[in-house]
Amino acid sequence: MCLAIPAKIESIENGVAQCRVGEGETFVTASLMLLDQEATLGDYVIIHAGFAIRKLDLKEAQETLTILRDLANAYDEVQRKYNTEVGGVEA
Asked: What single string gives the DSSP state of each residue in 11-80?
């Protein structure tokens, strides 16, 4: 399964962007060739399978990253509960 993620363009070279995901140190490389408008440094894009497929405004990017962060936290909580109940082990 693939997940399209929002990321901020940090650098561009030969139509390929290095993009930061969230506020961490996770970077992904994305081709800009599928975008229907020009992308510049600081723009947010949705990346899927190595391609930037759409530009986002800052508010939309922040909302999407918050939702993804909340989902990851919920998953961690469910996993901890499962490990405690089934395996008797706290992760």
From this structure: EEETTEEEEEETTTTEEEEEE-TT-SS---TT-EEEEETTEEEEEE-HHHHHHHHHHHHHHHHHHHHHHH
